[in-house]
Amino acid sequence: MRRGARRIKLGSDIELATARAAVPSAATPRPEPSKTLLELLDMSVDELTQLVRQNPSLYGMLLGYAAEMKLEKIWFAGRPGVSSIQKYDDHDRTRKGDRVVVYKGVPIKVECKSLQTSMSENLGGGRFRGKVQCDASDRRTIKLPDGSTVTTTCLRVGEFDILAANLFAFEKKWKFVFALNQDLPRTSYGKYTAKQQKYLLASLVPVSCLLNRPFMMSLSASWIEL
Fold this sequence. Notes:
Layout (H helix, E strand, L loop, with lengths): L6 E4 L3 E4 L19 H5 L3 H10 L1 H21 L5 E5 L12 E5 L2 E9 L6 E4 L2 E7 L1 E9 L5 E6 L7 E5 L1 H4 L4 E5 L13 H4 L6 E5 L18
Parallel strand pairs: 5-10
Antiparallel strand pairs: 1-2, 3-4, 4-5, 6-7, 7-12, 8-9, 10-11
């Protein structure tokens, strides 16, 4: 194992062995509004629903943020060993991870991604298949370990620890499956050299109700090591 590397396991616990991993500082807390969103906007539930239906991009944005909140509530809040759950400022492009879960003093970066709606299929009989959209929200220039730089929406290998894929589009229920960063497929886009492709994750990752690697149904399934 290379110096400074971490070992992550998805199993009966989330367990990491690390060589002095620094715990990230907590994000600046934002004041809670005294009014509900509907009160602030002077809108009814019907008006807000109509607004979202008329603007698919707004629905997609709300779904993404709702998934992050549900992921935290269902899987991490109150879990033994979890001392804090942090959310970085969305405008800070230098730090990846929709949630940073500090478990036994060690930060785990969790990236939450949703299914590409247009690629989600109901095959009948409770069977579904689709693709998780696993990329950055905008293009940015990054430097790769081989010394080259690329301008891309692809996420970099090692930029986060665990991918949590939100399967809400299948059954309109809050279900998640998980994969380690190192197990995710690499891009095959011809714009990048073969060496660069090794450091960039594929933008779309196939997933189905009959789980295929690298996904697992639960963080309490059989052990996987990084």
